[in-house]
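Workshop exercise sheet. Pairs work together: one partner reads the sequence aloud, the other fills in the structure field after running the prediction. Swap roles for the next sheet.
Pair: D.N. / O.F.
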Amino acid sequence: MELARHFERSVWLNPEPIQTWRGNTIAAVRNVVDMFPLTLDGLGEALGHLTKGKMVRAAGSEAAALTSMSWAFD
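Structure field:
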């Protein structure tokens, strides 16, 4: 996939239930990008994956929200 080659880090937030991830199309996408469920936990995991080793800058309430999500940056 062109996007995966262009960007250093990318993820796919999959709205389908994890139980259905065995299909051929989803398997093909998973071979190209890291896939996470489109849930609050999955979003946190994806954010942690994308920001691993990087400083995240935000202002005001966004900074407070990111600070309270420190689990996402482990």
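Discussion prompt: The first helix runs from residue 2 to 6. What would you look at next?
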